[in-house]
Amino acid sequence: MEKIYQIGVEATLDVIGGKWKPLILCHLGKGPLRTGQLRRAIPQITQKVLTQQLRELEDDQIIDRHVFQQVPPKVVYQLTDYGKTLNQILVEMSIWGEQRIKRLQAAHPDEKIELLGDHQGYLEGH
Amino acid sequence: MEKIYQIGVEATLDVIGGKWKPLILCHLGKGPLRTGQLRRAIPQITQKVLTQQLRELEDDQIIDRHVFQQVPPKVVYQLTDYGKTLNQILVEMSIWGEQRIKRLQAAHPDEKIELLGDHQGYLEGH
DNA sequence: GTAAGTAGGTACTAAAAAGTGCCTATCCGA
DNA sequence: TCGGATAGGCACTTTTTAGTACCTACTTAC
């Protein structure tokens, strides 16, 4: 595996970029979750992509995967201490992003621009 | 144009994500640049992709495009005030990313993992 | 004994992002 | 008058990322 970065930001985007990772990290930021809980929290994601993203986050040591040896299987994911160091960045990206959405909505009142969910994102408890 | 976000972070990634935008923003963060200066600063990017990324940043009001009506043409790009509000986030992503690269290098001393350039990125002058 | 719930694998397809190659127009200097 | 420098357009291909559909194996409850 060969990784050559021009600037540090690229290495960070490597970890938190992609369509689903921010959302996964947001949910795990509130506490450990089982696979099924994550899947229900993010209904639009497919099992395949969820597993794939979780593997990548695990390889990057952002999250921990706990397998309970029992039947039916039980797997719990949670942020590692290293993963928690992303929190400040994610909170700030969240704040900036929410302001951008408001800006877009103000500039294009006729277009469909929305922020779903309870808007709490990373902004609670930090 | 329809944009539906689950959380704010996605809106931020919409703006700074992608393969070249962080690098473009890094260079423009040091001052206004002409198209050719940018292209020489980022030799691996092609003219087509550079133009395309600049257009998107312009549409997002992150940068300004000044056309000087003369021959040969002269076009200067620079961060808008709004664009400058991204700076703190970019600086933190830069710091986190540089630490991650060191971490990767320590964990995989046999693999090719590098941070090119003068490593100054966003870390100078902020 | 059959269905539901558990976590996940695999082959294939579709969509998004990035890259290639070649084109325009104008002026200046050699 | 020919080549280089300016900024960028357009058609097409490749690569990357995400999505679809269908499969395993085990246990409990009905």
TrEMBL record, chains A, B:
HTH hxlR-type domain: residues covered: 7-105
Cell inner membrane among keywords: no
GO MF term list: DNA binding
Keyword set includes Transcription regulation: yes
Keywords: DNA-binding, Transcription, Transcription regulation
Listed InterPro entries: ArsR-like_HTH (IPR011991), HTH_HxlR (IPR002577), WH-like_DNA-bd_sf (IPR036388), WH_DNA-bd_sf (IPR036390)
Signal peptide interval: none
Protein name as annotated: HxlR family transcriptional regulator
Organism expressing this protein natively: Lactobacillus selangorensis
